[in-house]
Each structure stands twice: as structure tokens, then as C-alpha cells.
Design goal:
Helices cover 5% and strands 39% of the residues. It is mainly beta. A hairpin with a 4-residue loop joins strand 43 and strand 44. The radius of gyration is 29 Å and the shape is globular.
């Protein structure tokens, strides 16, 4: 297993090694601080001019104010050298700021952690702006870094909230300068760029695809920084949301040498995404492809906000404690339709508003309703039509909504009423008691008249627990606005609609404001409010909602944010993830399909369906691969699944991966997978595809040389090991699973995710049919499967060929405190009072005992070492 290039691991990224010995240019307003005594070189309206004026070796010192970037591109394009860096930095006369090597927090942009509800607390006694804030003004604008040898110290980067979808805050992608994947293009890309104690964020409710898009860059470092509010809602049009994006773009080759150290990153879909769209194949001109190589992640805190989970605590009907705060249990899932009753004239059409509540998969009008019945006393009960379309206007145009329209029959039916029943199959609802799915139903009753129905106005959404977060703004330029779209649909022709909140037309700062389109934005205080819409003739409809700091954070159309996993690779070469803390992910119907909330997902994926090699030859597979990946000393907490390792069939596969000393605490499919199939350890090749490509052979299968040792997985799953590969594929080789604890209640040890008679894994069900011989032995050419403790397993020992395999009760292992596999102390007892007073005797799995690891150490992960990692990550001080 090759680690990243030693040149990266030894890269000196401190300020002392990035000299800017030239002049200092200042930007700001007034004549104090850096602008004293006679004003700065440039004013805040001249940001682009100031940046363009810089020569190599100079420093731009920015007053700690808000700067609006130009509507086009804000470019950093100077090409410099190692002796003449350009430094862009905060006002250094303001001494209130973390020292180099210490993570910055939004306290230094003026916000206490209570403002960033759902994120972990950070110390902040005197919030104030101590760093400049550069804002993107619109979706068509960009912040583009295409030069070399730039250091950004203490800068906040963000966006305005006057538009919705933003495809990225900072871009290092300069492929617009290219016409081919040649040396000229390679040399036109950014290199030697360092972000030091920066804050990068999107908007709390409007969509932002990524914080950093590294494009074709080389030698990039993000150090001691804080990234948050990088989110996309389900079917929102932006793909996946991530803090770090790399390995995408035509003509880009030789991308890599990345150092990400001591950062906090909160992004909804995944923390990092390498590849995922077009990737340049191996270029004959440069000798490189577009796969990011030599990348080092260290001391990362990768976090997902629990308020994004609309189903939190729902499955087990319990409160989930995260970072000392209790969340949920969310109310049961329910489906509602607005209106529940309406009078219509014969032949009249009316648009319904459908809402699926407390569902992390969907949201208002996202559900695809099944038409259960149109019931009435006659043969003709009317008709229904449903389409996906966009609803709303301007920045609040909501994509891919399901609109259902009912058209009344041509004559009044016997009894005069028509009952419409709509249903929706939810993938999870109180899984522990009701099974994997159930059908939610709702009804609307229409009274049909010959003409002139009684005027009614239906206002939606309507729900018993409709909630929204309070908005926030301050004098430091921070603005966190929460809004919700209301719709008013009359059953008659109205010439106008007047919106009010608590009887106040247009609302006010106390009750919240609502505009003429029905967009309600919350006040800064909590409370319950009534939204009303009044037609031109005085007919009124209402809905109510509560403003609450415990409300889920969703899009303005109630769609949930997409959540997939903690850390992901779709390609990569010599990647190291170490000394890091991953926190929270759950099952969610993300763009492109749902996933169960895995801690780590490594899947080589040809997402752009590429078929050509770098010379233009048709090969029918893409250039993606995952080679030489090392994951060590990582804690994952609160996940729906563990590891999924996948060599996708139309790529160059996954090769040489080492995973050691990883703790997955509360890896619990019942609590977090929300109905998706979830494994602790899953290996897949091509999803069962039978196509074997020219580069494959018995010596070079799609997936090989995977070693997983000294891991501790606790929580609950009835499917510990998933293996899936078609019989036509060359057998997987050199798989090691050893020296580890796996929660494995029940007897279904080996599972085939896809099934099928042509799969190498034919283990199924329980008993003798679920055996090592029918799974591992038939899928692998050479494997090690021993020194494993399968907690709470009830499988017969006869199903295992390898030994030793132990099947202890989780409570009998000798952990200091198992605590149900959620937030416990998983150190092994070494004897009475060692390492804790809770210990009465040595665990049989501790070093020196009968069931120790194969190397003579404790079975499972090095828990003391991992606890030290978590402590260091939380402290936010980089070591080294």
C-alpha cells in the first residue's frame, strides 16, 4: 500500500515557508487601523482592482469588512514563484484571532455557536468580525484562482441569499484556458495555493454545491479552516453537495498534491467527492490522467447537521443525543392533501397540494402519489393527472415537483360527492415495529355542483407540526434567513391575493414577513403564527406554523437536504485519511439514488458513462480507479452503515486499500439507515454486472488487495458482511478481514445485496445456507477471515470455515462500558480497575489473553489512540 508522495507529507505550509517580502497594499474604508492615517490604497468597492494590482511577493491586507465580489469573475491569476508568494490577509492590526495552527470558528465572523443551530458548540465569549468577508453576488459570478503561489490568511468566503443554486464558492478550475489535455493546459492550472484559517460557507437554506472545486490544481492546502452550510435539497438540480470537490473537468490532467488538515467541514451529501462527472483519461501528451493523486486528509471533523434529518429518532421512537443536545423523536410520517374538502363545479379542474411529512426522502409535492381510488355514486367520478414540473418563481422556483390536478366529472354524481384517496409507500416508518415499508394514505372530498361553487381558498402547506427556524442577522454582515413557500389556490377566479401574518398585511419583523407571492420569512423570535390569503372578494384561507429553534432545516419548499455518507471517493490515487472524526449520516433519497448513510464509501464510478481512452479508442469503460488508499485512526459516530468498497464494472476498479484502527460507534441501521439496505462491511463489483473488460484478468480483477484489520464496529445490523460479484468476473484476490469486532445480531452473517443465480455469493437467509463457503470461498481467490468477534451472532459455528471466529454477547466482551453500542467506552478491560474502576477482570480479547488479536495486541481498534484523536480534533489545534 503506497502512501502519498513523501514530498506532500513533508510539505512546509507554514507562513515562514511562503514568503511575501514585497510591499503591502491595503483595502478598506475610513482612516483607522490599516487605513490610518490617510485612507487605504483601495476602497471596498475596488476589490477586483486591488487584487489585479498585486505583483508577486506583495501582500493585500484587507480591513475586516464585507466585500461584494464583481458580478462576473473575481480572479486571482498572477503566476509567481516559491520566493515571491502573494498573501491575501485580514487586518493584522486586529490581534484577536487564532494563532497559526489553530482552527478558526465563526466566532471571528461575529456569531456564537448558538446561532449555527445544530452544529457543535465552540467557545465564543465576545463575537465580533475579525476577518474580511468576500461574498459572491449571484449564480453567474465566480471566484476563480488560476495563478500560483497564493496564501489566503483569515478570509471568510460566502454568497448572497438573493439567488438559490450556486455551483461552488471557490473554484480552481481553469479548463476554460484549454483546448486539449496537453502540457499547455496542465501548466495553466493553479498551483501552490494555501487557505489558512479561512471560513467558507453557503447559505443556510439556499443551495450550494461545494465549498472548494479544485479543478486542475496541484499543491493545494486547506488548513485550520471552518466550512459549513454546503447543502443541496433532494432533486434540487445541483447534484451532490461536498466541502471538497476534485477530479472533474475536461482537459485536466496531473491533478493532485492536496493537504487538508485540522478543518471542520459540514456539507450535506458527502464531505469530499473525487470524480463524479467527466474525468480526463490518460493523456499521451502529459502522461497523466485526471484522477487526483497524492492527497492527505488529517484531523478532519466531518459533520452533518442533525436538523437536516427529518426522521431523526423516528424509527425507534427515541431522542437522539448528539453533541450534548437531544433531537427528536420526529413525529410519525404522514401524508396530507390540501384541501381536505372543496366544492367544485362540473368539469372544473383544481390543483392539489400534497405533503409527505417527516420523511428525509422527499418533501412537499415530491412524493409520487399512487391513485388508490376515485369513489362516487356514479360511473363518472372525474379524472386525475399528475406531472413533474417546476413551481414557484424567481429564486424560489422549485424544481421537479409533483403536481396533481383533479378534474370534476361532466355531471353531478349521485350523492354529489367524490372521494379522492391518494397513497404513498414510505421506505421506513418505525422500522422496529412495522417493517421496512408501509403505505401512507390521505383523502380529499369534493362536493360537485352544477355551477357557481361556494367560494373557497385553500392555503398550503398544512401540517400539524409545520415548523421553521427563526431567522438571524447582525451588524457584522451575517444573515441567516429561513423562508417557506405558501400557495393559495381558490376554486374561483380571483383578481388578487392579499397575504397576511397574524392579520398584518405583509407581516412585520415581529411575526415574520410574507410577500405577494406567498413567500414567508421567519422573524428572529420563536412563536406560533397564522398565515392567511385573502381573495379579491374577501374569501380567506389560512395555515399555521411555529417558529422554533428545534425545527428541521429544509429547503423553502420543504424538500430535505440530500445526505449520503461521511467520506467518499469515486476515484483517487495514493490517498490517506487519518486521525479524523466523522459524525452523523443517515439514509436519504439523494440525487441519483438513495444511500443508507455509510461512514466511508469508496466506489470507482464512471458517472459520465465514458467509453473512450485518452487516444480516442473505444474501450467501453471509464478512466476512474481507486488505488493505494490508506485509512487509519478514524472514529465514525452515528451512521446507518459502515464501509462500502466498490469496484464498479465500467471503471478500472479498486486496488490496494488498507483500513486499520477505525471505530464505528452507533453504526445502527435501525436508528439511522431509514429503511435502506445497510451493511457494516460491503464489497461489490459492478453491482452484479457480467461484462469483463480487456484490462481484467485473474491477476487483475476489479477489486483486489483489501485489508481491514483492527476495527471495532458497534451498534446494530442484521447484515454484517455484504459481498456481490458476478460469476463471470475474475475472482477478487487478497482480501483480509481480521482482528476486529463486528456487531452481528442474528444469523445472517453473509448477504448478497443484489441476489441472482449468476452471483459468486449464494449465501442467503440463515442457517447452513448462510455460510462462508457460499460467500467468501466462492468469491475470493485468497482471503484471510479470522480473529473476529461477531457480537450477538446466533449463527452456527459450522457455517464458518476459518478460525478463530468468536460469537460473544456484546455485554460479555469485557468492554469498559458497551452502553448498547452507542457512545460507550470500548476499551478492553485488562484486569481489576484497569483501565477503569468499571473493570473487574481482564477481557478474554485483551492482549495476552486467550482470544487476543493475531499480532498479540488487543482485538479491535486501538480505542485509546482513537479517543486521543477525537480529543485533538475537537480541540482544533493541528499536530503537527
Amino acid at each position: 500500500m503506497a502512501l502519498p508522495d513523501p514530498a506532500l507529507l513533508n510539505w512546509k505550509t507554514d507562513i515562514g515557508h511562503t514568503p511575501s517580502r514585497g510591499g503591502v497594499v491595503t483595502i478598506g474604508n475610513g482612516n483607522t487601523g490599516i487605513c490610518a492615517p490617510s485612507g487605504c490604497t483601495f476602497t471596498t468597492t475596488q476589490l477586483s482592482t486591488a487584487i489585479n494590482s498585486l505583483s508577486c511577493g506583495e501582500t493585500l491586507e484587507m480591513q475586516n469588512l464585507t466585500y461584494i465580489a464583481p458580478s462576473g469573475s473575481l480572479k486571482f491569476s498572477q503566476v509567481c514563484d516559491p520566493a515571491h508568494w502573494i498573501t491575501i490577509e485580514r487586518d493584522m492590526t486586529d490581534t484577536t484571532f487564532p494563532p497559526e495552527g489553530t482552527r478558526v470558528t465563526p466566532c471571528y465572523s461575529g456569531m456564537t455557536s448558538s446561532v449555527l443551530v445544530g452544529l457543535p458548540a465552540y467557545p465564543c465569549t465576545s463575537p465580533a468580525r475579525h476577518m474580511p468577508y468576500i461574498q459572491k453576488p449571484g449564480a453567474g459570478s465566480s471566484i476563480l484562482i488560476s495563478g500560483s503561489y497564493y496564501r489566503f490568511v483569515g478570509i471568510e468566503w460566502g454568497r448572497l441569499n438573493t439567488y438559490d443554486l450556486d455551483f461552488g464558492i471557490i473554484s480552481l478550475n481553469n479548463n476554460a484556458a484549454c483546448t486539449a489535455p496537453d502540457v499547455s493546459c496542465m501548466n495553466a492550472q493553479a498551483n501552490n495555493i494555501i487557505f489558512d484559517r479561512n471560513i467558507v460557507h453557503g447559505d443556510v437554506q439556499r443551495q450550494t454545491t461545494r465549498a472548494f472545486g479544485f479543478g486542475g490544481a496541484r499543491w493545494v492546502a486547506v488548513l485550520d479552516s471552518y466550512i459549513y452550510d454546503i447543502t443541496l435539497s433532494y432533486a434540487g438540480g445541483g447534484g451532490d453537495a461536498q466541502a471538497y470537490g476534485w477530479g472533474n473537468g475536461k482537459y485536466l490532467t496531473n491533478v493532485g498534491f492536496g493537504k487538508f488538515a485540522n478543518n471542520f467541514a459540514s456539507s450535506s451529501t458527502m464531505s469530499s467527492l473525487f470524480c463524479g462527472s467527466f474525468v480526463e483519461p490518460l493523456s499521451p501528451s502529459t502522461g497523466f490522467d485526471g484522477i487526483p493523486h497524492d492527497v492527505w486528509f488529517s484531523q478532519q471533523w466531518l459533520y452533518k447537521n442533525p436538523l437536516w434529518d427529518r426522521q431523526i429518532g423516528q424509527t425507534l421512537n427515541e431522542t437522539e443525543t448528539i453533541e450534548g443536545v437531544g433531537y427528536g423523536p420526529a413525529n410519525d410520517q404522514a401524508m396530507t392533501v390540501t384541501p381536505a374538502a372543496m366544492q367544485l363545479a362540473v368539469g372544473q379542474s383544481y390543483q392539489l397540494q400534497i405533503l409527505v411529512e417527516n420523511d428525509s426522502r422527499g418533501g412537499i409535492n415530491r412524493a409520487t402519489p399512487l391513485i388508490s381510488a376515485l369513489a362516487c355514486g356514479s360511473a363518472d367520478c372525474g379524472s386525475l393527472a399528475s406531472v413533474y414540473t417546476n413551481v414557484g418563481t424567481g429564486i424560489h422556483n422549485s424544481q421537479n415537483q409533483r403536481v396533481v390536478t383533479y378534474t370534476a366529472p361532466a355531471s353531478v354524481p349521485t350523492g354529489s360527492t367524490v372521494t379522492l384517496t391518494l397513497s404513498y409507500v414510505t421506505s421506513d416508518d418505525r422500522l422496529a415495529t412495522l417493517g421496512n415499508s408501509r403505505t401512507l394514505s390521505t383523502q380529499a372530498v369534493f362536493t360537485i355542483v352544477n355551477s357557481n361553487p361556494t367560494h373557497q381558498m385553500a392555503v398550503g402547506p398544512v401540517a400539524s407540526d409545520l415548523q421553521i427556524q427563526p431567522s438571524y442577522s447582525d451588524n457584522f454582515g451575517n444573515n441567516r434567513q429561513f423562508c417557506l413557500i405558501f400557495n393559495a389556490i381558490p376554486n374561483f377566479a380571483s383578481t388578487s391575493t392579499t397575504w397576511a401574518v397574524d392579520g398584518v398585511t405583509g407581516g412585520n419583523p415581529t411575526v415574520g414577513r410574507i410577500d405577494t407571492s406567498g413567500l414567508y420569512c421567519s422573524p428572529s423570535t420563536t412563536g406560533t403564527h397564522t398565515v392567511s390569503a385573502t381573495a379579491s372578494d374577501g374569501t380567506q384561507g389560512t395555515s399555521s406554523l411555529s417558529v422554533s429553534s428545534s425545527a428541521p432545516i429544509v429547503a423553502f419548499d420543504l424538500k430535505s437536504n440530500t445526505v449520503k455518507n461521511g467520506w467518499e471517493l469515486k476515484c483517487g490515487n495514493r490517498v490517506l485519511l487519518e486521525n479524523s472524526f466523522l459524525e452523523n449520516a443517515w439514509g436519504s433519497q439523494g440525487n441519483g439514488g438513495g444511500q443508507p448513510g455509510a461512514a466511508i464509501l469508496a466506489q470507482s464510478l464512471n458517472q459520465a458513462n465514458q467509453t473512450l481512452d485518452g487516444s480516442g479508442n473505444i474501450v467501453n469503460y471509464g478512466p476512474e480507479y481507486i488505488n493505494d488508499t490508506t485509512i487509519r485512526y478514524v472514529k465514525a459516530l452515528h451512521f446507518g452503515a459502515g464501509f462500502t468498497l466498490h469496484g464498479e464494472n465500467t471503471t478500472l476498479g479498486l486496488h490496494r486499500m488498507s483500513i486499520t484502527n477505525v471505530l464505528c460507534d452507533d453504526c445502527n441501521n435501525k436508528r439511522w439507515a431509514h429503511g435502506f439496505v445497510a451493511f457494516l462491511m460491503a464489497l461489490q463489483v459492478g453491482g452484479g454486472n457480467s461484462t469483463v473488460f480487456s484490462w481484467e484478468s485473474a491477476a487483475h480483477p476489479m477489486l483486489d488487495n483489501v485489508s481491514v484489520r483492527h476495527v471495532t464496529f458497534v451498534g446494530s445490523t442484521t447484515m454484517p458482511f455484504g459481498i456481490n460479484s458476478d460469476l463471470a468476473q475474475p475472482k477478487l484476490i487478497n482480501y483480509t478481514l481480521q482482528d476486529s469486532f463486528f456487531a452481528a445480531p442474528g444469523s445472517s452473517t453473509f448477504v448478497n445485496p443484489n441476489g441472482g443465480n449468476t452471483n459468486c455469493n449464494i449465501a442467503q437467509g440463515s442457517g447452513s445456507n448462510n455460510s462462508e463457503a457460499r460467500a467468501l470461498a466462492s468469491c475470493f481467490n485468497g482471503y484471510i477471515f479470522n480473529h473476529l468477534a461477531l457480537l450477538d451472532s446466533t449463527a452456527s459455528s459450522s457455517v464458518f470455515l476459518s478460525s478463530p471466529i468468536w460469537q460473544p454477547a456484546s455485554t460479555a466482551v469485557g468492554f469498559v462500558n458497551y452502553n448498547g453500542g452507542n457512545g460507550g467506552d470500548y476499551r478492553l478491560c485488562k484486569g481489576p480497575n484497569n483501565p477503569s474502576s468499571a473493570c473487574s477482570a481482564a477481557s478474554m480479547f485483551a492482549a495476552g489473553q486467550a482470544n487476543q488479536a493475531s499480532d498479540g495486541t488487543d482485538l479491535g481498534a486501538d480505542i485509546s489512540g482513537i479517543n486521543a484523536v477525537e480529543t485533538t480534533v475537537r480541540a482544533g489545534v493541528r499536530t503537527p
